[in-house]
Structure formats: structure tokens, C-alpha cells
Design goal:
Helices cover about 40% and strands about 20% of the residues. The chain is α/β, with parallel strands linked by helices. This is Pimeloyl-ACP methyl ester carboxylesterase.
Length: about 280
């Protein structure tokens, strides 16, 4: 049985090749563990508690701050490939030989690299709000992010309000609920990300957007590909492209949703994720 919820799960540390990584682990200690890989500028406090608790109801789920993020030491790498190497080193430091991946946005880029670098490590993957190397519009993420950060400052709103959700009734309601969930944890919150490391993440994403296309047909694992139908950050056409290029994939596009479709439709997403992982 699940012994705790994400709101109060303790933060742990582990040495990964001489660097202190922080992570949180919750759920049932059976089966293949699920590794959650997060988005641009996200620390562990940006994990949606409903998704974490939902998956933890049946699986052990681990989220972590990759190098240079939040409470983890070091400098953030300037390439997605290096971020994936760090994530793999973290997974191995925990002693896991086989994991499932859930990667959102930047975490979806990193998940693809892990699948290509060390396919034997991954049983199944869920990638949301993401796209392939060289995908349509990914090179524009930096510009869109800075514009919406500025927009957020002018309107006294979190930039994720604009980056992740549509600006209609449903989107505004979902944004408000999502941001409220992120504040549920009151104690032992994660450290903020340094601006310099945030900028390094943006450089890595920009390089990913300019990178040559990768051969994703070599990915043989089952992959669930998810997005909203109106993703401004990583255009939704990338999601359909991924599904076509990954042989054993399943595609879900949420209607009237943006980049944060899995947060807007968190109940439906958790139900589908659990079904997919159990198949």
C-alpha cells in the first residue's frame, strides 16, 4: 500500500559520480519503478501532485532534480544528450536495471535520448508535450518562454499560466487549479533553480530544435505519446510526428488543451498511464 502522498514525501539525496542529487520516491515498492523527468525550469516542487499520487497508487515513482536543477549540485549541461547521461547515472546509482519513464516537455526530449543511448534500461515510456530533435518550432521555445515570463511579470501571474494552458475559460480554470496544487507542499520545499542553469537548459533546448533528425524507428519499447491539441511551446504536430516515427506507439491528443494537457486532464491521464504501464 502507498504509505504517503507527494505533498509530504521526504526529499532524499544520493551521490552520483561525486555529485549530490536530490530526489523524492513514493508509492508501492513492487514491479518496475517509474522515473519522472520534468520540464524546463522545473524543480521537484513543479511535479503535479495528482499525477505523482495517481501513479504511486500502483507503482513506485521517483522524481529528481537533474544536474544543476533545484537542490542537485553542479552545472546544468548544455545538451540534451548530456542531460540524459546524467539521468541514466542517477537511475543506476539507485540500483535500478530496468525502469519505466514518464517525461514531460524537456523531460520528453531526455526520455528519447535515454531510449536511444541505453535501450536495455527502459521497459516502457510515456512522453508528453514533447517532440523529436529538429522538430517543428522547438527552436522557438526560448523566445516564447522569455515573452511569457515578461507577460507574467506584467500581469502578476506565473508564466506557466500562459505557457501551459489555453487563454479560454477551460484553460484559465485549469491553470489556476494546477498552480494551486503546486503550492500544497508547505514544508521542506525544493531550492529554486539558478538563472544561469535555467539559461543553460534553454540553450540545450534550442540546440535540440536545430539538431538533425534522429532515427526513432530503432525504439522498440511501447511508447505512449501525449499532448494537448494547441501546444504553443512544442507545437502539437510534433506529437503526431513522434507517434508515426516510433513503431510501437500510442497517441493521445487532448481537445481544448495546450502544452500542459496532462495537467488539465490529469484524471484521464493517470487512468490511461496506469492502463498503459500495466499492459
Amino acid at each position: 500500500m502507498q504509505s504517503t502522498i507527494y505533498q509530504n514525501v521526504p526529499t532524499q539525496t544520493i551521490d552520483v559520480q561525486g555529485t549530490k542529487f536530490v530526489y523524492r520516491k513514493l508509492g508501492t515498492n513492487t514491479g518496475v519503478p517509474v522515473i519522472f523527468l520534468n520540464h524546463l525550469a522545473a524543480t521537484m516542487d513543479n511535479c503535479d501532485p495528482r499525477i505523482m499520487d495517481g501513479i504511486a497508487s500502483h507503482y513506485q515513482i521517483i522524481c529528481f532534480d537533474n544536474r544543476g536543477v533545484g537542490g542537485t549540485e553542479g552545472k546544468t549541461p548544455k545538451t540534451i544528450a548530456e542531460m540524459a547521461k546524467d539521468a541514466r547515472a542517477f537511475i543506476h546509482a539507485l540500483g535500478y536495471e530496468k525502469v519505466d519513464l514518464v517525461g514531460f516537455s524537456l523531460g520528453g526530449f531526455i526520455s528519447q535520448e535515454i531510449l536511444l543511448q541505453e535501450p536495455a534500461l527502459v521497459r516502457k515510456a510515456i512522453i508528453a508535450g514533447t517532440g523529436p530533435a529538429g522538430g517543428e518550432g522547438i527552436k522557438n521555445v526560448t523566445r516564447i518562454t522569455y515573452l511569457d515570463i515578461f507577460r507574467g511579470l506584467l500581469t502578476f501571474k506565473d508564466a506557466k499560466t500562459y505557457l501551459f494552458f489555453n487563454r479560454n475559460k477551460n484553460g484559465k480554470k485549469s491553470a489556476k487549479e494546477f498552480l494551486s496544487r503546486l503550492e500544497e507542499r508547505k514544508e521542506n520545499r525544493d531550492k529554486k533553480m539558478k538563472v544561469s542553469n535555467f539559461q543553460r537548459q534553454l540553450k540545450a533546448i534550442h540546440a535540440w530544435g536545430l539538431q538533425s533528425s534522429q532515427d526513432l524507428s530503432v525504439i522498440k519499447q511501447p511508447v505512449l505519446v501525449v499532448n494537448g491539441d494547441n501546444d504553443r511551446m512544442v507545437p502539437s504536430s510534433n506529437t503526431e510526428d513522434l507517434s508515426k516515427r516510433i513503431q510501437n506507439s500510442e497517441l493521445i491528443i487532448y481537445k481544448d488543451a495546450g502544452h500542459g494537457g496532462i495537467f488539465q486532464y490529469h484524471e484521464e491521464f493517470v487512468k490511461k498511464a496506469l492502463e498503459f504501464l500495466a499492459q
